[in-house]
Amino acid sequence: MAEKKGIGNVHAHHLDLRVLPENITKQQSGAPEWVDDTFLPDFLAMFSDYFKRFKEVMKKRKKFSDVAKFHIEDMDEADIDYSVVLHIDFEGADPKAKDWNYQYEYVIDWVSRVCAVYPFRFFPFFGFDPRRPHILDMLETNFKDRCFVGIKLYPATGFDPQPGKRSYSQENGDYYPHKYKVHGSLRGPEILENLKQMYAFAEKHNVPIMTHCAPSGTYRATVRSKEKYKNIWRYTNPMNFQHIAKKYGLRIGFAHMGGRIDKESDKKMAVVWRNHIFKLIELADEWTSKGRFFTDASYDIIHLINDPGKKVRLDANIKRFEDYLKNEVIGKYILFGSDWPLNIYKCSEKQYIDEYRKRLNKELQRKYFSDNIARFLFGESKKIPPNYVDFIQKECARENRPFIVPEWIKEENGEYFLR
Fold first, then answer.
1. For residue 91, what are the contacts with CB-CB under 8 A and spacing of at least 6?
2. C-alpha to C-alpha distances, 105 to 112, 118, 126, 138, 396, nearest whole angstrom
3. Does residue 157 contact residue 397 with C-beta atoms inside 8 Å?
4. Looking at beta carbons, which pairs linking 195-198 to residues 24 or more positions away fall under 8 Å?
5. What is the DSSP string of 151-164?
6. Tens-digit pLDDT profile for residues 317-366
């Protein structure tokens, strides 16, 4: 009997609506937070399947334990074995923030603890914003004493990921592309040093990095609606990472593959960025450095799945992915991701992944859902880092829960690997 390959989702989030800044909650749910406390969801659910789903989802996103359980239910229905949970520090995107005081420690603590409730089902990435005070200490703690296995960057909240001179004004040390600042933020030189130290940390500990790469996202809360987004887009440009990946020998994943190329408002930039990403993948594949680039297209087909009128576009999008996966070089670096739970207002995880399963042969499915994700997360050895295993084992013992090793995990001499 063949060993079971783990089916992975490389792009998911656990968002507790209680601790997100209010304007971010509005973006994530599509409605202001106060709407949930009125009669509107119940009323609208009587007339619309969308609002019926909206009502159900909002109730399940009130606290982390509910979010994790909800996610496991969706994963089980879709036959997804594990998901990468990308934590994002949204404080820098909130124009109403007075200080770096939102419940950051609460969030990352809960993200770790729900991983221990479901061993080897969730692999968390630590959200790193170089403007946050004491961020390097937090980074060290969460990889030493918790179970984080990767780093999530979201430059669209307002920071340049390059630790170079152009990252801030020489005159005033400002690091922001617009007038808004979070009080208590670090200044330019400190931010640059944090970036350098973070990349060095990732190199030393073999830690992958996933970065937002699309001309859409939560930066919309960062700038005033009348301002252009080009000041933010330069921070999410994939070319920012060419030198970084090579110098530090890093595995860097570009989320969203540059953006939706079938969405007219994003198409021009998304096409350019997608081409940049593929050029970077081909370039890095020949490096003697360990640096490599990966990419997922999370959220790409969600708006097409339940729309019969857009079936032709859905077929064309997935055919495009089939061609990518068949490419001798690029096909080794394409990752499956759904952007859960941002998809669930429009479709389930099962609907999302099944659209690919219908059209991709078994060999391409193994690359897309399993092999490429395992290599992105843990390198060629696919070895799960000791901090993850140690934390899970200790939490299971503390809570008197069994330490269950699923069939898609291989154990050898006390070390654990993705198959």
1. 21, 97, 100, 101, 102, 104, 129, 132, 182
2. 11, 21, 11, 9, 21
3. no
4. 195/130, 195/161, 195/162, 195/163, 195/167, 196/163, 197/136, 198/128, 198/130, 198/135, 198/136, 198/139, 198/151
5. EEE-GGGT-----S
6. 999 999 999 999 999 999 999 999 878 778 889 999 999 999 999 999 99
- Claim: this prediction has a pTM higher than 0.90: no
- Over the stretch 273-322, which tens digit does the pLDDT of each residue have? 999 999 999 999 999 999 999 999 898 888 888 888 889 989 999 999 99
121-156 pLDDT, tens per residue?
999 999 999 988 889 999 999 999 999 999 999 988
> Which CATH architecture does the domain made up of 8-16+63-418 adopt?
Alpha-Beta Barrel (3.20)
pLDDT, mean over the chain: 83
Ordered DSSP codes for 55-72: HHHHHTTSSHHHHHHHHH
Q: Which two tokens stand for residue 283?
A: 């370039």
Cα–Cα dist 364/357, whole Å: 9
360-393 pLDDT, tens digit per residue, is 999 999 999 999 999 999 999 999 999 999 999 9
Quote the distance between the C-alpha of residue 179 and its chain's center. 27
Are 7 and 79 a contacting pair, CB within 8 Å?
Answer: yes
Q: Specify the DSSP element, H or E, that contains 416.
A: strand 415-418
Are the CB atoms for 86 and 365 separated by under 8 Å? no
CB 13 within 8 A of CB 84: no
End-to-end CA separation in angstroms for the chain: 14
pLDDT in tens, 10-66: 999 987 666 666 555 555 445 555 555 566 656 555 555 655 565 566 555 556 668
Q: Cis omega (within 30 of 0) on the bond before 163? A: no
- pLDDT single digits (tens) 178-195: 444 555 667 678 888 999
Nearest to residue 287, comparing CAs of 332, 257, 243?
Answer: 243
Neighbours of 177 (CB within 10 A): 20
d(CA 150, CA 68): 19
Radius of gyration of the chain, Cα coordinates, nearest whole angstrom: 20
- Strands (DSSP E) contained in 260-315 are 292-296
